[in-house]
Amino acid sequence: ATLPTMESASRHLCRRHQMVINFEDLGWHKWIIAPKEFRTNYCKGDCPFSLMSFFNSSNYAFLQTLMNSRTPEIPKATCIPTKLSPISMLYYDSDGNIILQHHEGMVVDECGCG
Amino acid sequence: PQLEEASLLHFMGLNKVPSPRIAQPVPSILMKIFQERQKAVATGHYRKLCYVKEFGVPGNLIRLFQDQGALFYPKEVVQVPSCTQKFLFFNLSVITQDEQLMMAKLDLRLGLNAYNALQEDLEVVVSLIQRRAPQPDQKLLLRYLPRSQGILHVDLLDVVKEWNSNPQSNLGLVLELLPKGENNSTVTIYPQETCDNWRQSIRASLMVVTLNIKECPRFSHFPRKRR
To answer: Which of A15, B167, B175, B180 is most buried, judged by most C-beta within 10 A?
Structure first.
């Protein structure tokens, strides 16, 4: 009888959710040559103290949560990206020059509590 | 949202949303490098992002600068001394202090009009402008360019290093085309239409590869090429 409750609770726990960044949606398609879009993730969900060890949490996240229990002004640990990777982008600048550069931290690979 | 957009653009090294007036075509080599880098990211080989295999140099940022000679040396301000001369200028101010110059290559593409206008195979002279005077100062290159070829690459690494360390010294280049065997272009007088056709038919761009030590710390002490 407890299974459905746990399932519904786990839906709200910290995890990654797929997201597609489309440069046309951002209005950047006129100057970004490639890629036109790329897949990444966003992080969303709760970080309950009892389950934090399952969520790729840092030691700091545990300490922050402990501090929160004593000093409520300090927020609880939140669901954040814990592993990021770069993407390469090819684009025009205002002078019409073409630039090829990789940009760090553009794709979220993993999420955790921090 | 505008503030967030501005922050992200600043992080990318841009002051505002670019609105390029003329979208120059993307060279196939750049598209190939882009695709190789996408593969490297997909397979987790991030070290490959700090080396440009296609050019054989370390580097994580590649720029193709457009010639702005017509803006820097407008006709009404500077009298171009010869019909077959053209001023070239590349605005390199976007290169930051954190970047180390690894490659600078001038690409010259001569359309058929350049040859048709002069009715000859051509000799190309590229000279460095070192002071504000109509005559160029230092010849960098003199090369025969047969009618069938039309593309010329000139190594400008040392010149661009000097421009980068002392931006005021960047006064551009003069490109001169001479019919093969003719030493003095002023001897022959060409009709204005011929001159205009020739200038419009030439495309010049500067490919620059730089390495940001902060982003590629392991490449900061790459081995020097044996002479």
So the answer is: B175
Own/partner contacts of B219-222, CB < 8 Å, gap of 24 or more, are B219/B50, B219/B51, B219/B58, B220/B100, B222/B58
Read off the amino acid at residue B194.
T
In chain B, the DSSP E strands lie at 51-52, 57-58, 61-66, 85-88, 99-110, 122-128, 138-145, 151-155, 173-179, 202-212
Classify the C-alpha dihedral B70-B73-B76-B80 as positive or negative.
negative
Partnered with residue B151 across adjacent β-strands are: B109
Q: Does A106 touch chain B (CB under 8 A)?
A: no
Mapped onto helix, strand or coil, the DSSP state of residue B157 is helix
Residue A98's SS3 state is strand
Among the partner-chain residues B16, B19, B37, the one whose CB lies closest to the CB of A30 is B19
Contact: B63, A98; criterion CB under 8 Å? yes
Instruction: Check whether A11 has a pLDDT greater than 80.
Output: no
Mean pLDDT of chain A: 87
B19–A91 CB contact, under 8 Å: no
Would you state the pLDDT for residue A62? 86
Using a CB–CB cutoff of 8 Å, tell me whether A84 touches chain B.
Answer: no
Of A34, A98, A102, the CB nearest to B64: A98
Q: Report which residue type is found at B30.
A: L
